[in-house]
Design brief:
Biased composition (Basic and acidic residues): 60-69
Protein name: UPF0193 protein EVG1 homolog
Number of strands: 0
Organism: Eumeta variegata
Region (Disordered): 60-102
Order of helices and strands: HH
Radius of gyration: 38 Å
Number of helices: 2
């Protein structure tokens, strides 16, 4: 194990050229200029507004779906024959299927 120097740091050769010293979870602190800070503030504000607009439109769509479901009235159930057999001529005439309207 390596011993720390007078400042308490252990100096080792960093194994990766892609990841800066300190790793992924300890990035360097970046000092932005005033222009860059303002630009980032505007970007964050626009992002927040976009998220709010998306949530609002989703909410309105859900409300529209709920109201359209409430307005929808179910149709009367169809009367289906209870058996699948041939009908007699008298039953067909009695049902009015072949009545000719003049």
């Amino acid at each position: 194990m390596l011993r720390p120097d007078s400042e308490g740091c252990v100096n080792v050769e960093w194994p990766s050229s892609n990841i800066p010293h300190g790793g992924i979870f300890h990035p360097k602190i970046v000092n932005y200029s005033k222009k860059e800070e303002e630009f980032l503030k505007v970007l964050l504000e626009e992002s927040r507004l976009n998220i709010l607009q998306r949530k609002k439109s989703d909410w309105e769509l859900r409300q529209h779906e709920e109201t359209s479901k409430q307005r929808h009235r179910p149709q009367a159930p169809l009367v289906r024959p209870r058996t699948s057999r041939r009908r007699s001529l008298s039953a067909i005439r009695h049902s009015g299927a072949f009545d000719i309207e003049e």
